[in-house]
Amino acid sequence: MSSEQIPANNSAADTSTQDLGNVIAQRRAKVETMRAAGKNLYGHRVDDLTSTAQIRAEFVPPAEGEEPSATPKIYRVAGRMMARRIMGKALFANLKDESGAMQFYMQRDEVGVEAYQEFKQLDLGDIILIEGFAFVTRTGELSIHVKRYELLSKSLLPLPEKFHGLQDQEQRYRQRYVDLICNDDSRHVLAMRSKIIQACREFLLKRGFMEVETPILQTLAGGAAARPFKTHFNALNIPMYMRIAPELYLKRLIVGGFEKVFEIGRDFRNEGMDHKHNPEFTVLELYQAYSDCQGMMEIMESMITTVAQQTIGTLVIKGEDGHEINLASPWRRVSFHELLEEKMGADWWSLSLDEQRAKAKALGLEITDDMDSFHVSHEIYDRLIEDTLIQPTFVTRLPAYLVPLAKRCPDNPELVDVYELEIDGREMCPGYTELNDPIDQRSRFAAQLVGRADAEGEVDRIDEDFLTALEYGMPPTGGLGLGMDRLVMLLTGTESIRDVILFPAMRPK
Questions:
Q1: Beta bridge partner(s), residue 86
Q2: Are 172 and 198 part of one and the same domain?
Q3: Using CA atoms, how far apart are residues 176 and 170, in angstroms rounded to an integer?
Q4: CA-to-CA distance for 264 and 449, rounded, in angstroms?
Q5: Which pLDDT tens digit goes with each residue over 4-54?
Q6: Which of 258, 255, 245, 257 is nearest to 212 (CA)?
Q7: What is the CATH number of the domain that holds 209?
Q8: Is 372 a member of any domain?
Q9: In the chain, what are the helix, strand and coil shares in percent, each to the nearest 5?
Q10: pLDDT at residue number 66
Q11: Are strands 408-409 and 100-107 parallel, antiparallel or unpaired?
């Protein structure tokens, strides 16, 4: 191990801040010496590279008793030097590129005395190019026998200590670049994020959906109930809001005649943060004309099972508490009413309001006198039922006041034709039969605004242009919204949303 490696976790560090400063000073002095000698410390474009993964995939070692080829294939590999062991006239080191790490071997007599001495002056973390042939060491490790090397980028700061790595959680999020260098698990999860989002996109494109982009800066923050981020548009001299959802713009496109649209993009909600919530997050929303809630359930079930098979290769995953979750179809479909009856008894909906309040209070819930039957029932669902829905479950037919943009159920106008997809005790994706009656939509918008104001005293306004669009006529439509961060968390077995976001929100130091 190089003596310059400094532990990232200060509570466990044996090296003081002063020692770290000395290491940095030594590196900077080394840079000045190398520059004075005319060395180029920051190289240029490199062509014809081979990844370490490709070498592992294509290399075939000689059969037992067979002599190695006299003209072996020469590989060019670039990456970061992560470890080094010098043994006099030869050395072993590790090079890490995007696809993995590989050992390489260098002899002084082959690269030349001067080049060998200069290589010994390089530091861990330096980015280098090596050229050489693949071979298997006596210990059975595939390695590169170096014939030539080149320094491509000099590292001025030491990497965290090898065996402890970058362990401080806050530093991992603040310095994600160091986290990605040192922690293979982080690299894997964040690479999987890209693959999962791409798989969702390809699934929808194959089904004939068109990907679109709608405004992030909006004059009204609509499509969901959340406190927005506010800014000012100088050129127009008007207040603007970062969108909390793309829903109302996507529905305008359905009005305009596009029948299958989706968007994968950022939403912004100026609210709390915890291990499941980040104020800036990625959402997939889609809308399909002439469909409904049932059609959205089919799309969501098919998409998640397809994406899981393509990206992680299995439908059986581990939940947050270690329990097994099976994503295989068919998924359970159960109404909000049925879940309350399972928890509270078959007579729950026939009880008086006072009886319902009393039973809920007996379970330790905080029930107030102004809560009606649906609010009491939703409190029970939130506190006592949702966390128990581990296997994929579509919870359908929710109270209308919860979802002001969904169509009412024909047999019960107090309910709306929607679902909430629950997996591992958390909501993954709501889906609706969309409300396309402009008169009903206006009255429900108005009811939603009663008594509402944000912390600055601003009252939400009704999106009149959206209502005008509905008045031109929107076909019967199904829609859904899927939080991509939560989907990545689910498929990678990650417990914190910060671990699946490249650069999560952090308080400045």
A1: 91
A2: no
A3: 10
A4: 28
A5: 433 333 333 334 567 888 999 999 999 999 999 999 999 999 999 999 999
A6: 258
A7: 3.30.930.10
A8: no
A9: 35, 25, 35
A10: 82
A11: unpaired
CA 92 – CA 162 distance, rounded (Å): 16
Q: What is the token pair recorded at 53?
A: 């993964």
CB 381, CB 344: distance < 8 Å: no
How far, CA to CA in Å, does 159 sit from each of 26, 118, 163, 421, 506?
14, 20, 11, 43, 22
Residue 457 domain-assigned? yes
For residue 1, the model assigns a pLDDT of 33
For residue 306 the two structure tokens come to 């397809």
Whether 98 and 194 share a structural domain = no
Q: How far is CA 378 from the centre of its chain?
A: 29
Residue 123, token pair as written in the block: 């530091």
Distance between CA 498 and CA 186 in Å, rounded? 11
CB 266 within 8 A of CB 281: yes
Helix (H, G, I), strand (E, B) or coil at 395: strand
For residues 391 and 315, give the distance between their C-alpha atoms in angstroms, rounded to a whole number: 12
Which residues does 53 contact at the CB level (< 8 Å), separation at least 6?
99, 100
Band (pLDDT 50/70/90 cuts) for residue 165 is low
Same domain (yes/no): 142, 194: no
Question: Distance between CA 193 and CA 487 in Å, rounded?
Answer: 9
Return phi, psi of residue 427, to 5°.
-75, 125
pLDDT digits (tens, 9 = 90+) for 347-357: 999 999 999 99
Going by C-beta distance under 8 Å and a sequence separation of 6 or more, which residues neighbour residue 42?
A: 152, 153, 154
Tell me: do 405 and 256 sit in the same domain: yes
Rg (CA), the chain: 29
435 within 8 A of 444, measured Cβ to Cβ: yes
Mind giving me the DSSP string for 318-342? E-TTS-EEE-PSPPEEEEHHHHHHH
Structure tokens at 504: 């999560």
CA 36, CA 377: separation in Å to the nearest integer? Answer: 76
Q: What are phi and psi of 201, to 5 degrees?
A: -60, -45
Q: Which domain holds residue 278?
A: 184-331+391-500
Q: Pick the closest to residue 335 from 411, 413, 417 (CA basis).
A: 417
Helix, strand, or coil (residue 101): strand
